[in-house]
């Protein structure tokens, strides 16, 4: 038997910055047990009721993506230390599409964030494993809200740029950063134009040593490429910067550009609008997921579907009639 705390005990602990209770609450969010899930919702509600009454300092949510090996983890470690040294409280989360299969995690390899994971101002939480991307996204959003309530004013969300997860992360952050390598062709980096279009900034990483000149050339190339993109409609023009996570070069400029974006979008109202749209999209995605889940959880539904689909295929049942029959 686990020793159960009340939702208010959790909420008060989290709001006071208690890491241990924060971690336990996130574990509830990630749990599949119905009683855990119910308690998680109560904790979130209790936390949000209090933060709505007395909002904490505004948070900044940053998504970071790039192909495997581009240097995301190393970059987060360097940027993270830079931010905590400025007094920020930093939470690092991950949306990891690969953890579904392997049960592993993007951030499971802690050796790559050794220093940051020891930093008392940083909190690193790996992606929950064994879930659909939609499920991971939902839990990451809830986790982010708890982290913010616990006083983390900057949330970094890492995702590997190999599929749908970039779009999902873009839909939960204020600023979306795409890390790129110099020298590797766009095809090689698997970078579809679509991802570049989502980015609020491109950063050419590993701009150090023999790589420096190539990084500067890539910067110019990508700047030219971005000029051909349609304007974002916010008055913000995504810049292309170079940086090195090893030497720390360029991290300062990069952070200043992120703050510029924050100032601009806050003043124009786009920041607030983006968050409101994200909230609504979250709700709609969750509603869709829940409806799907309920539908397929009905007993005997698979068998009925097989029969009905055979009739539809044969043309003996119209799709419209089939849907009416299924949903009764
Ligand atoms: N020279 C140089 N090497 C770097 C830099 N950043 C990362 N690396 C190296 O690049 C390799 C990959 O770095 P990671 O940070 O693990 O890359 P990642 O994008 O997190 O990789 P995945 O988690 O596999 O997607 C490591 O060997 C790093 O040491 C940099 O700024 N300069
Ligand atoms: Mg990594």
From TrEMBL:
Residue ranges constituting the AAA+ ATPase domain according to the UniProt record: 58-202
CDD domains linked: MMAA-like
InterPro entries from the UniProt entry: AAA+_ATPase (IPR003593), GTPase_ArgK (IPR005129), P-loop_NTPase (IPR027417)
SUPFAM superfamilies xrefs: P-loop containing nucleoside triphosphate hydrolases
Gene Ontology molecular function terms on file: hydrolase activity
Hydrolase found in the keyword field: yes
SMART domains: AAA
EC number from the UniProt entry: 3.6.5.-
Keyword line: Hydrolase
Family: Belongs to the SIMIBI class G3E GTPase family. ArgK/MeaB subfamily.
Protein name in the entry: Methylmalonyl Co-A mutase-associated GTPase MeaB
Lineage per the UniProt record: Bacteria, Pseudomonadati, Bacteroidota, Cytophagia, Cytophagales
